[in-house]
Amino acid sequence: MFKKILVANRGEIALRVIFACRELGIRTVAVYSEADENSLHVRFADEDICIGPAKSADSYLNVPAIISAAEITGADAIHPGYGFLSESAYLAEVCEACHIRFIGPDPHVIRLLGDKAKARKAMKKAGVPMLPGSEGPVDSEEAALKIAREIGYPVIIKAVAGGGGRGMRIVREPSDLGHSFRTAQREAEAAFGRGDVYIEKYLDSPRHIEYQIIGDHHGNVVHLGERECSIQRRHQKLIEESPSVAVSDKVRRKMGAVVVDAARAVQYTNAGTFEFLVDDKGQFYFMEVNTRIQVEHPVTEWVTGIDLVKEQIRIAAGERLSFRQSDVTWTGHSIECRVNAEDPVTFVPSPGKIHAFSIPGGPGVRVDTACHSEATIPPHYDSMIAKVIVHGRDRAEAIARMKRTLEMSVVEGIRTSIPLHLKILNDPDFVAGRLSTHFMERFMPVKKPVAAEQSA
Ligand code: ADP
User: Fold this and answer.
1) pLDDT digits (tens, 9 = 90+) for 262-295
2) Among the options 10, 27, 233, 292, which is catalytic?
3) Is-catalytic flag, 166?
4) Can you give the pTM of this predicted structure?
5) Does residue 83 line the site of ligand 1, with CB under 6 A?
């Protein structure tokens, strides 16, 4: 087992990894930017090192600074969390070269699955159901038109190197294709340094359902069931739950077997997530694989009773998975709300100093956060400040628990998305489980005409 792990992240996920290390008796090193000097992950790690200024590019994305910090402190592994460098095949390679263990899949697996066109090809070969689309990147407008004609409109143009819901363009008719194709290429080039795009069929009102898997270096791969993540705003998840009301035991077994086979086919190790879109007939279509721990992993931990982060660490150290597929059972229902520092109506970010912070616990409540009553939310990073996760015997109890928890939460000094979450939790469609990725459109601010905005 490792003696010391460097946590290459900040906020709640850095703390989450530190918790796991403490329970396993492993020492920790926190890295931080100048904006995070007083953060809890710095306070609770055994050692800490400043890796640069506030800007992520100069600190949390700075591979040489992170590797140097690991070398100076003698860390034998790096946990990347999610976001930042968590899906960087380059960091995983540099770690390998420096004899530091990267807690995640092997670099060639990260590289393969991080290229969405290559991932599609590999997953299709492994028998995963696919939406009709291009075989690989599409390099000309003519080729794009031809494929779109074959698969039928609407289509979606996506960046091969995409992530975080950026660089996607929906096209409903041929006359819009050329312009959208060029814009998507330009956006992809600007955001990811690579302009390659591919095309697939666009589903009008799908659910987003994903499967958690975990595999060790001894050929064992197990799935931990699904998470429903259809409540999204601008392709960013807001509420996640497990199980999904749209998945029966039979479907869970069937899709679970599909993802386990697919993970084996690419020699997947460590934790990973297979994301799918599900149409109104219950048909699953592959979207992408995320080669890291996900923000929403706690809902899976709660219904299965498995500590995913500890399991990630053990596997990276060469241990066997501590359970088999037949040991995995699902109990009750878990829901997670991502609390963001933002205006609940306009969604404008609301960083700043917190004056009061209290999220009540009680039965069936877990709060993953690095916030406290005197924390300052810096403007430089993601706006998520806390994850409130609940568990109940069934979905109705979980919803009731989430509502009472958020109703009694006090966060002063900044604005948060808590009022928005309460609106969603009281919505009849949400309560009935009638979900789709378009659910949030009804909650979006109405765009005023430009002239009216100017006179306001
Ligand atoms: P990213 O890696 O940027 O998050 P994804 O491929 O995971 O991109 O897609 C993010 C979201 O975009 C999905 O959850 C879904 O809401 C929407 N989406 C992506 N592809 C399609 C599609 N073919 N049809 C309908 N919606 C899609």
Assistant:
1) 999 999 999 999 999 999 999 999 999 999 999 9
2) 292
3) no
4) 0.95
5) no
Give the other-Cβ count within 10 Å of 24's Cβ. 16
Q: Quote the tokens at residue 386.
A: 């806390």
Pairing between β-strand 284-290 and β-strand 270-278 as defined by DSSP bridges: antiparallel
Could you state, in order of their start, the residue ranges of all structural domains in the chain? 4-103, 132-201, 207-443
**Structure-block tokens of residue 279:** 């149409």
Q: DSSP for 394-454? A: SHHHHHHHHHHHHHT-EEESS--SHHHHHHHHT-HHHHHT---TTGGGGGSPPPPPHHHHH
Cα(85) to centroid(ligand 1), Å = 21
CA of 208 to the centre of ligand 1 (A): 8
Tell me which CATH code domain 207-443 carries.
3.30.470.20
**Pair type for strands 77-79 and 4-7:** parallel
Burial of 393 (0-12, 13-18, 19+ CB in 10 A): exposed
- Please check whether the domain covering 4-103 is classified as CATH 3.30.230.20: no
Torsion of CA 130, 131, 135, 136, to 10 degrees: -100
What is the CATH number assigned to the segment(s) 132-201?
Answer: 3.30.1490.20
* The token pair that represents 154 in the structure block: 């609407």
For 298, the token pair is 């706690």
Instruction: Determine whether the shortest distance from the Cβ of 286 to ligand 1 is under 6 A.
Output: no
Can you tell me whether residue 7 is helix, strand or coil?
A: strand
The CB density around residue 416, as the number of other CB atoms within 10 Å, is: 25
What confidence tens digit (pLDDT) does each residue in 200-219 have?
999 999 999 999 999 999 99
Q: Is 200 in the pocket of ligand 1 (CB under 6 A)?
A: yes
CA of 286 to the centre of ligand 1 (A): 10
Q: What is the DSSP letter of 320?
A: P
Chain centroid offset of residue 326 CA: 27
Distance, first Cα to last Cα, the chain: 62
State whether the Cα torsion 241-247-250-251 is positive or negative: negative
| Higher-scoring residue by pLDDT: 106, 161 | 106
Cβ 232 under 6 angstroms from ligand 1: yes
